Amino acid sequence: MLLSTRAARCAALMAEPDELYPERILYPRNTRTLPKTPVIGGQPIEEETCMALRTLVFGSCATPPKAEWARTGLTLRPYGQSLAFGLRAPRNTTRGLVTAVQAVMLKHFLFKCDRQEFRTGPETLLKPSYDRQIEVLTSAISEIIWRCAGGFSVSTYPNVVSNIVPEAVVALPQETPYVQHSVQYFQDGLTETLHLFEFNSLENLEIFIKRYLYLFHDEGGPGAVLLLYSAVLSRGLSKARNDLEDPKASILGGCTEEGPISVVIFILTGRASPHLHNGVLHVGDENTYAVPQWGVLMRSEVGFLVHEGDSGVSKQLGSRLKTPSLPIWVTLCLGHHGVLFNTNRELLRNYHAERRFEIQYFTCGGSHATLTVDTRANEASGAPDAAAIETADIAATPLEKLIRSKWQDALIQWNGTPVM
Fold first, then answer.
1. What are the pLDDT digits (tens) for 330-359?
2. Exposed/middle/buried for 315, CB within 10 Å: 0-12, 13-18, 19+?
3. Where are the beta strands (DSSP E) in 355-399?
4. Burial of 37 (0-12, 13-18, 19+ CB in 10 A)
5. 310: how many CB neighbours lie within 10 A of its CB?
6. Where do the coiled-coil regions begin and end (predicted)?
């Protein structure tokens, strides 16, 4: 009975609310409308850049791109209520990117607030006001674009000193298409209308993003693809192509139901690498030259945890993603993206804090659960019995197995019923 209850909870948590309650009543949302300032200025996108950008992101500029990317915004939930810290997103190939943005936002909600806000407690921080929501969404978008431009590190590569000033690029649409429909280029109504804006300081970038935040935020708008385009252009088309390590590859190539891992890594680290390991691995054998595979080059503030059954993906995960500097992780559990987080900044810095703690799980579909993780079981009994571990692992839900990929053999308890 216990196993079936836990399994049911996990299955419900992974399911979308619409799948659980197809006849649910929709009530008016507690939201406010952002001012819609017309886009003025910028440099119209050149034909060569337009075609290269579409090809790098979607794999081709001669065929229509995935339509959901132009219809998914970074949409906030009702302010001042439960889950007000969260973004809302449909289950499609944009989910990985939106979830990574959600993780960056949680960092700002919980750990980038002033002392007075912090004293109110994590429960209040996770029920932000409208103004706080807008502030955090603006900061998260700006931070992601600035990181992709190399703005938070002296150099993209360790031990290399660079005096290059970061140049962030923001791509916003207007009405005039600058590339005509042809055999070589299929108009999508967005990419060919872009104006590009360049920034050399994070402060100016944030001011600009806040002015045009509605283009990123509006539900049904192109916010997801505008952020991805801006990130790629800020990284630089040639650098982003090199990150993929395959001249024929695209950022959304081989896209799974909720998007590829490389998009999540791109948002979290500023590099569109398909690899999860630390540093550089040289892969080859006696018959071929060793080819470098560039993974995660420095410890990330926000981490990444993976459980994909027996696929072996989680075995590639390096400590720089597994143990970030803040207790926030984007998760990929059997193809579904979510966020695990703890409200205690010291969780990963203090051994005693990791002995027993609560951790929250959230998906942009609106599911939310709180679990207690207890790592003390092996301290009293010594080395755990192998048979007992195997039995517990078989009984564990996928989410519990994902959590144990970080805290091995921990006892995990579900606190109440998951919110849908």
1. 999 999 999 999 999 999 888 888 899 999
2. exposed
3. 356-362, 368-374
4. exposed
5. 6
6. none
Instruction: Map residue 170 onto helix, strand or coil.
Output: strand
Query: Do 333 and 399 touch, CB atoms closer than 8 A?
Result: yes
> Rounded distance, CA 87 to CA 33, Å?
16
Q: What pTM value is reported for the model?
A: 0.89
Place 186 in a pLDDT band, splitting at 50, 70 and 90.
very high
Going by C-beta distance under 8 Å and a sequence separation of 6 or more, which residues neighbour residue 116?
A: none
Strand duo 336-341 + 168-173: pairing: unpaired
Tell me the per-residue pLDDT of 345-395, one tens digit each, with 9 for 90 and over.
999 888 888 899 999 999 999 999 999 999 987 565 555 555 545 555 555
d(CA 322, CA 320): 6
Show the DSSP H helices in 22-175 as ranges.
47-58, 95-111, 115-119, 122-125, 130-148
Dist CA 237 CA 217 (whole Å): 25
CA angle 363, 358, 301 (to 5 degrees): 65
In residues, how long is the chain? Answer: 420
